[in-house]
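task queued by scheduler; priority normal; single chain, no ligands, no partner chains; default sampling; output format set to structure tokens
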Amino acid sequence: MFIKVLLTIIFLVVMVGVGIYSRKQASSVEGFVLGGRAVGPWLTAFAFGTSYFSAVVFVGYAGQFGWKYGLSSAWIGIGNAVIGSLLAWILLGRRTKLMTQHIESRTMPDFFGTRFADQGLRVVASVIAFVFLIPYTAGVYSGISRLFEMGFEIPYEYCVIIMSVLTAVYVIIGGYKATAMNDFIQGIIMLFGIVAVIVAVLNAQGGLVTAVDKLSQLPSDADPTQNGGFASWFGPDPWGLLGVVILTSLGTMGLPQMVGKFYSITDESAIKRGTIISTIFAFIVAGGCYFLGGFGRLYEPVINEATGKIAFDSIVPAMLVTLPNILIALVVLLVLSASMSTLASLVLTSSSTMTLDLIYRDKKSLPGEVEEGTIDDTIAEKIERRKVVIMRVLIVFFIVISLLIALNPPTFIAQLMGISWGALAGAFLAPFMLGLYWKGVTPAAVWACFVWGVGLTVVNMLAGNPINPINCGAIAMLGGFPVVWLVSLFTKKMPQTAVEKMFECYKK
């Protein structure tokens, strides 16, 4: 216990120390939200990866999908690396950086408002982002606290509160630069931690070959007479597995907190290096998490006394509780690192969106147009400082709301994330990606996709989830592309001159 407490205290002191070190760069909006658009490839790549993978993956997804699909759940991690990281950086990295800098966009809702010349889109997108980032944050709180409860025997409620306070401290003090620097430190811990944990768990089962052999002898849930499904290439439910791969991989391209990382990177050469770093990171961390979860059935499941069903969020903690204390300390730091980085990214995204896109909606000219009137430098500086203060206040507000949900979570971690990712990426993915590539996207098509993504997710939830939230999220994301394309064909186009000016950034 002394080792666990000591390592955790050192970790938390370093996190807060980085926040204090970065405070000078967080005095302006550009510095607080984007790190001055001068964050290097290593920090950006690790910020992308650590924001992607949190306790939701390590505890919730690895446990639930490892139990359901066995070793084939490792395909989810591979999909996350190839689609969610490599493809995301290739498709979005350069074009997002250039266009958002060209049109002076700081947030994803700001992009929609400026790119499609419709401030209504900006307002609605900010509301969607704020509302649906909350269940995701609650899921992260829940996952990290399960591990703390196992490692330190501290009640769940205390764990959640402690984590929320500490995350708020270093984000409020240091802004995005502190978050990115801490993400790098946390990412290093995650890389070493996941490898060490996998080795320890497999050794406890007699080695890799023995563990796989044990898994192959377990009967299928659907047909108890059939063995081997959990040790097969594509598992007992390949189509269900595909839905999870789509949700967790494509989703990154439509999430504000993920796409925002491309806004802040330094230049195009940094994007190329960041692509490689981020993909390798995802292969190790995501692939390792799901591979580990695939052996969950070799351990006695924990049954929820209230429902009589398996408590999926307790599967991974049950696998780890028998490890040596030093490894449990490493696991706690691993999950703490993953979760605090994601929490920091979520609260920073949410507060900046609410401040810049709802409270202070600057009237901006399109590229090439002359702005009407100017603001005195002193007044402009005061407004900038006021925006930063409001963002800091909203960080506290956002954390408190998420905390209240986390203290009484309505469903499993995976379902919380499914609802959040489904609505956000279902609404944002298609219009954002197509808006970077296709000049023919219309404002009406963006509105239609907002209605499609949020509407499908909310109606499914209110109807008692007749479609599994995971599959519903995947349908919302993929369905957004034909929605945007079809509506754009039959609705009023934007002025050609304005669109051409926005796309000039790609010709430089």
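post-processing summary
- Confidence is low (pLDDT under 50) at residues 365-373.
- The chain has one domain: 2-22+35-362+378-507.
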